[in-house]
Design a protein that fits this description.
It is globular, with a radius of gyration of 16 Å. The chain is of the alpha/beta class. It has helices at 27-33, 66-75, 110-114, 128-131, 151-160, and strands spanning 3-8, 17-18, 40-46, 56-57, 63-64, 80-88, 94-101, 104-105, 125-126, 136-139, 147-150, 165-172. The strands form 3 sheets. Strands 8-10-11-1-12-9 form a 6-stranded mixed β-sheet. It has a 4-stranded mixed β-sheet with strand order 2-3-6-7. 21% of the residues lie in helices and 32% in strands. The protein has one domain. The chain starts with a strand and ends with a strand. Strand 10 (136-139) and strand 11 form a beta hairpin.
């Protein structure tokens, strides 16, 4: 099976400016507090006429649209989600995203960990045996959030016509 690193596409970099997220939506806080998080978190966002709301946001933490959430759930029933509601500062528009809590798997080979760059895995090599037939995981080997998905899941995202998705193929062993 082929695998990819899932990220927000570089051309979709006009994200909303989220107010008051620090300490609530950062990667380390989410992982430590996931059991005690509210079912729904609400944040104000500053938007302009150029702001995009793609189906995936990877900063400050991975968030996905309802369509993307539904596809993930079809492949991985054990993933649970927390709802994040963005309301523009004028209160006229609402956007709903979901934070997926993915299984953390040490799925990269040791060679890949040694060749890691500051942006995460550049030339990752996935150890297929450690994936255990999962379609989406968060890689343990990096300090940054690194999401590894299967070819089947990537194709489902693309067939649905989701926007903002960036995929980088990784080798497998």
């Amino acid at each position: 099976m082929r695998y990819f690193i899932l990220e927000q596409g570089e051309e979709y970099n006009r994200n909303p400016n989220i107010k008051g997220w620090y300490g609530k939506l950062d990667q380390h806080h989410i992982k430590q507090m996931h059991a005690r998080l509210k079912d729904k978190m609400i944040f104000e966002v500053d938007i302009t006429e150029f702001t995009l709301f793609p189906d995936i946001l990877d900063k400050p933490v991975l968030m996905v649209s309802a369509d993307m959430k539904d596809i993930i759930f079809k492949y991985e029933k054990q993933v649970f989600f927390r709802e994040v509601l963005f309301i523009d500062t004028e209160g006229t528009q609402r956007y709903t995203y979901y934070i997926p809590f993915l299984p953390r798997v040490d799925c990269f080979t040791e060679d890949a960990c040694a060749s890691r760059n500051k942006d995460g895995m550049k030339n990752g090599v996935v150890n297929v045996d450690k994936m255990w037939n999962r379609h989406i995981v968060e890689a343990k080997a990096t300090n940054e959030q690194c999401i590894v998905i299967s070819l089947d899941l990537a194709e489902s995202f693309l067939r649905k016509g989701l926007i903002g998705i960036g995929l980088r193929e990784v080798k497998f062993a």
